[in-house]
Amino acid sequence: MTFSEILKFSIDLLAVFLLALGIKGLSKVRSARDANRLAAIAMSLAVVGVLLDSLGSSGISFNAWIWIIAGSLVGTLLGAVVARRVAMTAMPETVALFNGCGGMSSLLVALAVAIFPLSNSNGELSSVLVERISIVISVFVGSITFTGSMVAMAKLQGWLPTPAWMQSKVRHFINIALGVVSLISISSLVSGDERGLLLLIVGSALLGIGVTLPIGGADMPVVISLLNSYSGVAAAAAGFVVGSQLLIVAGAMVGAAGLILTQVMCNGMNRSLISVLFGGALGSITAEGLSGSAEYINITSCSVEECALTLEAAERVVIVPGYGLAVAQAQHTLREVTRALEANGVEVSYAIHPVAGRMPGHMNVLLAEADVPYDQLKEMDIVNPEFPATDVVLVLGANDVVNPQAKNDPSSPLYGMPVLDVQEARTVFVVKRGMSAGYSGIKNDLFDLANTSMVFGDAKKVLGDLLVELKELGISGKN
């Protein structure tokens, strides 16, 4: 091995090690920020490795370096702009966009190799069968990932409604036909007929749209997680195409992590992956489809002043954050309220559902922005037994994850989904703009319970008014 080959191998090995540490560190809020930096360093080292790989016996390939450096600079600039401007509420859409970019990158790499076959150091063609299979997988999965991710992003943004005919069984026949077309083109490519390449790209791209478009908003976070796994699979296949061990390992880790996350989310929503992808009750129910029996008949509303008086007299308070809190960007105001309560001797903790918001970890990151102590964040399995001993639960924008139907109503589509048992607390305050349903479109029986009071209004305004009331009662977090 030459010095440049040894150096490149060392850099790739270090990049894989740092990437593995980065992925592991993302599992904890405390280490997530540093873990993200480690992963960024790993990707920077990967770029350096690619630059070294462009060194040939004839010297530096300046043309290759120009393209690599230019692409890296453009990507860095776009990434910095997105990171600074994207709101926490748009994070799922951003993840979908990044998944799509990863899929498109793998597709383009495989397409380039298909058009301009690589040669090994002896001038002979690389292993034909491995190369063809790798190209096929990278093109197929990469194309599905790109179009599926773009559809997911557009649906979450509200840009793309689901056509009525795509909610019928007709979609299954269309997707099956597209799958058959893709299989035919795959067989053609593996056998050496490159005329099937364009057909595979078009067929798999349409298949990605056809599978993703009918999926409802409640299930879209699971789809994004699955597409994240697809992007890793496509990257690993692209690694085989270009002979990059780093890309193979990184893609495999992302693919495995995405599959694990998808399974966690399915368990958290009591949904099977098959029902998410091919339609089911939760994905198809809408608020308009609710029956008359789903109307609320025993709603109790209260003022911010009443809520403040109850909180002031409490000894133990549990906060349940949801997507509404993220939409209102009220995490910092919430932190001021909890500081005031803690200064008054109130024990405060936060109940985090596995799929609160739109993605696992969404609420953890949101609260970390407001410097909420990590030890106050409690997962569902830990906090559920504590609700009977809780004086007040403050629900902020959460809906389906606190719906007792999941445990009490076998006929409900939510039945069996793990939820937070907030109804077991002495008093429950639910802060909402109105009586609209959650993603599932299901009535929330919590709102009808005798120990539940609704505090209507924007979460940030309600919390701001609540802070004023607490201060008037002599409670201040600045003491």
Give a brief outline of the structure.
The chain is of the alpha/beta class and 479 residues long. It has three domains: 1-85; 88-284, no CATH class; 292-472, Rossmann fold, CATH 3.40.50.
Could you give the topology of this structure?
Blueprint: H1 3-25, H2 29-53, E1 55-56, E2 59-60, H3 62-85, H4 91-115, H5 128-157, H6 170-190, H7 196-212, H8 220-242, H9 245-269, H10 273-278, H11 281-284, H12 304-313, E3 316-321, H13 323-328, H14 331-343, E4 347-352, H15 362-369, E5 377-379, H16 380-383, E6 392-396, H17 405-408, E7 427-432, E8 452-456, H18 459-472
Parallel strand pairs: 3-4, 3-6, 4-5, 6-7, 7-8
Antiparallel strand pairs: 1-2
Number of helices: 18
Q: What ranges have pLDDT less than 50 throughout 5 or more consecutive residues?
A: 120-125, 280-293
Terminal CA distance? 66 Å
Strand order of the largest sheet: 5-4-3-6-7-8
Shape: globular
Which structural class should the secondary elements be placed in?
A: alpha/beta
Please tally the β strands and state the result.
Answer: 8
Order of helices and strands: HHEEHHHHHHHHHHEHHEHEHEHEEH
Largest sheet: 6 strands, parallel
Strand content: 5-15%
Overall structural domain count: 3
Oligomer: single chain
How much helicity do the residues have? Answer: 55-70%
